Amino acid sequence: MLGYEPQEFEVNFDTAVSIIHEDDRDEAIFHMQEVISQNQEYNIKKRLIKKDGEIILVNSKGKLISEEKSGQKKLIGVFQNITEYVQTKEKLKTVKKKNRSLIENLDGIFWEADANTFEFTYVSPQVKRIKGYSSKEWLATKDFWKNHIYPADRQYSIQTCHNETQKIKDHAIDYRFLAKDGKIIWFNDRVKVISRKGKPYKLQGLMVEITKERQISQALKDEINLNQSLIQ
Asked: Residue ranges of the PAS domain (predicted)?
């Protein structure tokens, strides 16, 4: 792990301390002394310096033991190299942060919910601008989504989403939603079904407002119907 051959690494206190990164050294010594004085086990993270100068992060566990015959006390421990694990974790955190930033700048409302209860676990901040409700208001009420679907569209929307979810099938639904100011807004809700062990586990969706598109579509239908009635 550190690049030393067994014969060139003398096991003693000074050597053990010398390979600890200087910024972590005082804390590591404190924990080692605590183990010796209070006979406690320790479990800490610290940086070690390899023979070639590379710095690695390890999880260090140690405890004090006594030899049966001599009664001599010894401090024993084990190092686990967690450098790659921590680096990967940080990269994932950065990716998630970037993804969240992208989501929160979409022209729509990104959301996540439990696939079995339809209880929402995340609603992006755009909901405030589009529907008038804050994410906090939405998440505070278990059946918020169901209760705010326009009554005439409610049963169809919920049933369709339930049926497609049970089939683990991605789907899209158009329905009307009641905004905070009382306005009725049309949405196209695109839903991705995430499964675990062959069963629906989580839903991710994007609600995009289509009120203007619906109004234009309805106006065209009305015009066609009017023209047909005039011809007849």
From this structure: 95-155
The residues facing 52 across adjacent strands are none
Tens digits of per-residue pLDDT, 20-48? 888 888 888 887 777 777 777 778 888 88
pTM of the model: 0.55
Decide if 142 contacts 158 (C-beta within 8 A).
Answer: no
Measured CA to CA, the distance from residue 137 to residue 146 in angstroms comes to: 14
Distance CA 3, CA 144 (A): 59
Residue pLDDT, tens place only, 92-103? 776 666 656 555
Is the CB of residue 23 less than 8 Å from the CB of residue 46? Answer: no
Task: State the residue for tokens 């320790």.
Answer: 42
Half-sphere exposure of 56 (CA within 13 A, CB side): 17
3-state secondary structure of 31: helix
Whether 102 and 113 have beta carbons less than 8 Å apart is answered as no
Sign of the Cα pseudo-torsion (67, 71, 72, 74, in order): positive
Please, what are the domains in the chain? 6-85 (3.30.450.20), 105-219 (3.30.450.20)
Nearest-CA neighbor of 214 among 189, 178, 185?
185
**CA–CA–CA angle 199, 202, 205 (5° rounding):** 130
Pull the structure tokens for residue 27: 């804390």
Residue 192, Ramachandran bin (φ over 0: left; ψ between -120 and 50: alpha; else beta): beta
